[in-house]
Amino acid sequence: MTARHTPPLKPEIFEILLALEASPLHGYGIVKRVEENTDGRISLAPSLLYRRIRRLLEDGLVEEGEEVPGEKGRPRQEYRLTDEGARVLRAEARRVVALAGDERIRGLASEAGT
Amino acid sequence: MRDVGNQDREGRGDRHGPWEEIYRLVLRFFFPSSYPGRLLDEAVRTFSEARHRVHSERGPVAAHRYAAAATFRAAFDGLAERTDIASGLLADLTSGWSADLQYAVRQLLRHPLPAGFAILSLAAGIGVNTLLFSAVDSTLLAPLPVPAPDRVVRIFGPDARITLRSAMSPEALERLDRQASALEGVAGIARLEAGLELGDDVRLASVEIVTPGYFEVLGVPPVRGRGFRPEEAGAGAGRVAVLSHRLWSDVGGGDPGMVGGTVRLNRESFTVAGVAPEGFGGSNFTRRADVWVATGARSVLDAGPDSEREPWLAGIGRLRPGATVEEATGDVERTMSELHRRHPDSYSASGYFVTEERAGLINPARPGLVPLAAAVALAGAFLVLLVACLNVAGLALVRVASRRGEMGVRLALGAGRARLGRQMFVETAVLAAPAAAAGLWVATAADRVFVGLIPPLSTLDVAFALDRRMLLFTAAVALASVLIAGTLPALLAGRGGITSLIGGRGERGPGSGAGLRGLVTLQITFSAAVLVLGGLFLQTLDWYRSAEPGYVVSGRVALTLDVGLHDLSEDEGRQFYRALVREAEGLLAVRRAALGRGIASGGPTLRLERDDGDDVRVDTHVVGPGYFETLGIALISGRGFDDRDREGLEPVTVVNGTLAERLAPGEASPVGRLLQTRSGEAFRIVGVARDVKYGSLAEEPRPFAYLPAAQHYRERMTLIVAAAGDGAGVVPELRSVVERLRPGLPIVEARTLQAFVDEDRLLARAAAAIGAGLGALSLFLAAVGLYGSLAFMVQRRRPELAVRMAVGARPRRLFGDVLARGLRPVAWGLAMGVPLAALAALGLRGLLVGASPLDPRVFVGVPLVLLGMALAVLLGPARSAATLDPADALRNE
After folding, report:
1. pTM above 0.80?
2. Helix crossing, A11-22 with A27-37: angle to 10°?
């Protein structure tokens, strides 16, 4: 099967990878951190989150980490970024930064702001 | 999924409410079943945590709103996931066709011998199906070449169930034409042959004498000139003719001036009214008509009775759009019962019926026999195709099994099992394509041979053409065989998983034996069934070959003449025929000569009144002196005809043994008594002749009488001579005798009696030959397939056999073991196939003329043949097992 996760990434995938970049997280941890990182703009439904995680696992961008106690002490599966995941995340970051450096796009953005 | 339950129980506590249950159900229902259960568990837990946070932060209402939205979203995500997986599979299956194809061709070229066998098997299976389909299609299924042929029906009178002369009277047909509301129109047809003179050309023409509505009912108005007018049906009227397009263009050179000109039929002049459309040869595909005349000409051509009430016409009609055969039958029954009330002497009250035209080709006395025969032939051909497909499937299984490693590697590289399965279909299709082409070629070649077998003098006009229907049918059969032969290997390809395929030798993998044994069992089942039926049909063939008409055939020649073609008066005619017999007997090569109205029968039908009031129909033959001696028909008592039987003296007759027995049961001989008919005629019986076959070889004994030619003058007579040798050499001499006596008189027909009898056997022999041929073909195919499968089964057991040999098993024991195991599926196949065939044979009793449906020779012989074949096939592998070198065998594994 071909790797589906090459830049440009879907926003929620970018945010999931970004959330895992700092530290491994379990499912609900990802949801919370993505909400924090995006000021609540992206709120991941659990079903969508695990669809994405499944693909990321398949493509080797994310791997299963340890089982950690979740809230109320139940075991939760943690996920962490692989080297490949980190590479894809960096590539996407470079793409976004390059876009941000484009004079025309900055112009459009400021127009939209005013 | 069991995990879910466990975790569920563990996790169930204060935090798990009905929302979590609903959420889980939605996930499980909407997500594909292949979805990892762990991920779903995690999703439920994440949902639960998120819901509780919303609850604690924003209250119960917000929490419910969140839960509902998340649940809805879960359903959506589940469906999206399904679509993703499906489209991924689709992408995998819709790409890479050409690679598969190249790969398949390479694979098959690498093993040309099995591929060749497979192609040969399929070609035989496809070819025989195409051949039989085209034969059935062009005879039974092909509609009349007229517009809307499905609305053309035949109308039969009550006698139709006894004889083929279905007989409707002109009056009845004319009334039906007016009254039957389900029918647009009704017409009547009779056939005759007449000497046709067109310019300088003199030939025997096939003539249809028809009611005026004929061309309208069939929907084929003449392309030039006109059809017939109502007044041309009246007796004595209507000396007009419509020519066939073929006659007009071949003989008349397509001259438009011919319309309005004159042709002569039996020396009578007819005005050419029109020309029929191209390709239209009348109402019967087996006998192409050259000329049509109106029923008004019947007395001129001596073709039918003058009375309007006498039944002599075959009824034909055209249904109104939307009307059914049943409605038409109802109409016919109503009209006929009304006629019966008015003229009870002329019409029966019931027994009339209507059938579709195509079914009308078939003897109504034995309805469905010909379609049954055709269906049986096609079913047999399909069974042969199944046997061929099983061969191909067996070979494919061997391929699958010997390519376990390759399959495993492809799976490891990311190919789905669906893709591997597709590869097996592609490989089967690569075999089927050349096989279909070869089958088509064989079928057309065989068709030509078949057409070549039709005697040249026969008017049977069946054209086999490589048409679109035949191509479509062949393509469909080829596709079906790909599906049949490719499914099992496709299902088994890649089974067992990567590790077992590459490394292990899993016993349950493809080609583990169970599949092959099943195939062998099925092959034997079908082959046994086809072979038993083929064997029974061979008995029928044998019966027909040895069936004798009862008179001497060898060295006898029949020469038919018609002095009506030269317009001779009765005196001249009698004189001519007397001279002909005399001159013929004067020839050196001729031992005896006599005249007959035909060969075995050809006189008027007499109706005798029986004591119980019912009629006995007695067919007759009009013969001259010396007839019985010439044909070697023994006289049981009395005498044959001679010069004493003259016109004006007391009418005499010779009856056959069956009629004699009826007339004088138990008495020595009815000679001297009077034979009285219902119409008041009386014939003095002067002799009793032994029974012979008067019509078909398969007919039952029936009452029959001979009338002397001297007292029953006919213009058309057949000269029968007993000649030296096979008789064919005498024909030119007889022709020159005719030419000397009557220059320019055409010979209607000249043939040996052998050819006459053979023609009668043709159809039955064709049917029997098809059955026997299918049996032989399936035997060959089963042998090929059995060899492939059994040899492979032994090959696979080599390591086991080697180990047994190494630990001291005796070679003879191994030999017997291989034989026994190989024969087991054969025995199962026989156990299923033979009873199947017995059931089929009992159902087909009507087709098996002269053969017992449970003939022990066939039912014992066929299993023996199949067992013998299996033994012969097994002997090689079994011997190689017995002479196995254990070390060598194990090393090579």
Report:
1. no
2. 110
